[in-house]
Amino acid sequence: MPAVDTAPLTFRDSRLHPLWDKVRAGERLSREDGQLLFETEDLHGLGRLANFAKSRLHGDQVFFVLNRYINPTNLCVLSCAFCDFARKKGEAGAFENSIEDVLEMIKPGTREAHIVGGHHPDWPFEYFERMIAAIHAARPETQIKAFTAAEIDYFWRRWKIEPREALTRLKQAGLHSMPGGGAEIFSKRLQKELRFTGKANADRWLEIHGIAHSLGIKTNATMLYGHIETMAERVEHLVRLREQQDRSGGFLTFIPLAYQIGNTKLVPRQTPPTDDVRTIAASRLLLDNFPHIEAYWVMIGEETASVALHFGASDVNGTLEDEKIAHAAKAASPAGLAQEQILRIIRDAGKIAVERDALYNVVKVWS
Amino acid sequence: MLADIRAKVEAGKRLERADGRWLLTEAPLVDLGSLAQEVRFRLHPPRQVSFVIDSNPNYTNVCITDCQFCAFYRKPGHPEAWTLTVEQVLEKIESAARGGATTVLLQGGHNPALPLDYYLSIVRETRRRFSQVTPHFFTASEIMTMADVSGLSMPEVLAQLKAAGQSTLPGGGAEVLSERVRKRIEPKKGGPRAWLDVHREAHRQGFRSTATMMYGHVETPEDIVDHWEAIRELQDEHGGFTAFVPWSFKPGNTLLEKWIKTYQGPNAYLRMLAASRLYLDNFAHVQASWFSEGKRAGQIALHWGADDFGGTLFEENVHAAADFVNKTTVEEIVTLIREAGFTPVQRTTEYEVLQVY
């Protein structure tokens, strides 16, 4: 790891000095500190703090994975106000994939399959269990990252299968890890306003990740931002994730998800790139117990993702063949990137590209 | 090293070549941006970013100079070659003026079939018919073409353009002002002096102009420092440059595409802007562009030392020929500047404020 520059820094916003002292000493930042991170006009000061924290953990390394996105279905009993992906049965564009369809989507050598879908009105739990088992049998080299906590919760709501049982059975079938989706934003106010009251709430989402961690299933976490949430709500979301990580310790990566306006148009425009790099930096600093913060190029664009590697991000996700959810909301980025472009995002920032698997085992250092 | 450079910048001392090389190759990007932003706010304390309502039409794509980075030109006689009449050019200027443009940046290939009077008529008629439009016409190498076809000296051509009503020149065609680079990518356009002499003479005659740089092809950091040195020195002589405007080379459909597949990304752009802001201590303005690097990269760039966001570019054909297309409106520019955290200000060609939004 390269030497970390600890020369005294000056900040245009002098309120950042006490935070610098804390970060350097490895002390935890408070909610008030978090609020300041989202408010300060000193974007560079924020970047320097986050880059320091990131470099201490990972030096100049930035991770990526060769992966494939799979959505078994977009049928969903919910009607979340921010979602362009979900369809009702019989609606134009609705799709349901068979297990054979899903198997065809996974090319030999795919390192990670990322599988999430709608809350299907009547597919039984066993269908998903068989799907995971079939993928595992056909592609033993592929690590299966599947089912958000919201989907696991739905197995309880729909079929009365407890999360612990569901996760135990899915793990037995071949599940490796869980994605971080469905967290949206931890706020009672917004759960009502954005009409996702029928979905796992903050307590439930965190509980399910805790159960997964206790079963040895590593997971990710997300936050949907850039819509109608307040900065205080963002801070609260991050603090709750940090508390859960203290309790169960199984989170690998935090992925801030920039809201795509698409047809749902909760706000007139997508949040600007300065807000994206700020959110990544603030996350890196508040989530001191998370190994990685991700710059998800699908949501923020390749350019912003590349710059974000100087603001605390240590992962760019992956090639994401056939991403559908953000693109249903008209995300401007391409629906999949060649490995060459992923490497460019990392190398343009002057960082070392490290290919990983779903559990962050190093596959290859690309330099 | 950063501390040394900071000390120099704070003491108002000039950066030297070694400083420039370090900024281009090793300075941590966020620290560099922070320092550039301090300098930018010292020069322009209000949190304002200016832009101009403008258009970039072209009068011909005929060109005999065969630059390897250019996807726009066609040789004389080529089936896709075209040249507009004076009236056709004026129609384009009229359409820009109707859209609210205060600047028209008119440029074209080096077409030996066009007489000096063609250019002078465009300037005179623009002044006569569209008094609100500043004719920001003709780059240095086009001025040299006019001298060649007319048999007049370059200073005489500038004097005639001035008499016709022109008072500013666009800074295009600088590419990278280094002998080595220009020999490699544009051997028929002459060395750095070809560009510098025209701007020197123009400044002497009272023209204002911009200095540009197109990077991201065959240049080394040393060549970039050569470029900065050349324009900083010239700016010391007459102070005629309004702004520095860098952009990345777009390889699409050019001869260089064979060796250079992609344009340099946003990190290189931020580094170039910030390092230029620090090195070019006698330039009032550094321009970032929503156009040349994309809107979102452009917004971030406003935090890396730039105080200007370029123009609306109602028409643009040169990047478009390289398959790089980007469009906007006045409304969107205003929004992009606001989102980045600044107050938008409409300016003239010569950076006078017209309107604070």
Overview of the structural elements:
- The complex is a heterodimer of chains A (367) and B (357).
- Chain A contains 15 helices and eleven strands.
- Chain A is of the alpha/beta class and 367 residues long.
- Chain A has helices at residues 17-25, 31-39, 43-58, 99-105, 125-138, 149-159, 163-173, 188-193, 202-214, 231-248, 273-286, 297-300, 302-308, 325-328, 339-348; strands spanning 61-65, 67-70, 112-115, 143-146, 175-178, 218-225, 251-258, 292-293, 315-318, 352-356, 362-365.
- In chain A, strands 2-3-4-5-6-7-8 form a seven-stranded parallel beta sheet.
- The mean pLDDT of chain A is 93.
- The two termini of chain A are 13 Å apart.
- Chain A is 42% helix and 14% strand.
- Chain B has a four-stranded mixed beta sheet. A four-stranded parallel beta sheet of chain B has the order 5-6-7-8. A three-stranded parallel beta sheet of chain B has the order 2-3-4, covered by helices on one side.
- In chain B, strand 3, helix 5 and strand 4 form a beta-alpha-beta unit.
- Chain B has a single domain (2-356), classed as Aldolase class I (TIM Barrel, Alpha-Beta Barrel).
- Chain B has 357 residues and is of the alpha/beta class.
Sequence-ordered SSE layout with sheet pairings:
The complex is a heterodimer of chains A (367) and B (357).
Chain A: H1 17-25, H2 31-39, H3 43-58, E1 61-65, E2 67-70, H4 99-105, E3 112-115, H5 125-138, E4 143-146, H6 149-159, H7 163-173, E5 175-178, H8 188-193, H9 202-214, E6 218-225, H10 231-248, E7 251-258, H11 273-286, E8 292-293, H12 297-300, H13 302-308, E9 315-318, H14 325-328, H15 339-348, E10 352-356, E11 362-365
Parallel strand pairs in A: 1-9, 1-10, 2-3, 3-4, 4-5, 5-6, 6-7, 7-8
Antiparallel strand pairs in A: 10-11
Helix pairs in contact in A: 2-10, 3-11, 5-7, 6-9, 9-10, 11-13
Chain B: H1 2-10, H2 17-25, H3 29-43, E1 48-52, E2 54-55, H4 86-98, E3 103-106, H5 116-129, E4 134-137, H6 140-150, H7 154-164, E5 168-169, H8 179-185, H9 192-204, E6 208-215, H10 221-238, E7 241-248, H11 266-279, E8 285-286, H12 295-301, E9 308-311, H13 318-321, H14 330-339, E10 343-347, E11 353-356
Parallel strand pairs in B: 1-9, 1-10, 2-3, 3-4, 5-6, 6-7, 7-8
Antiparallel strand pairs in B: 10-11
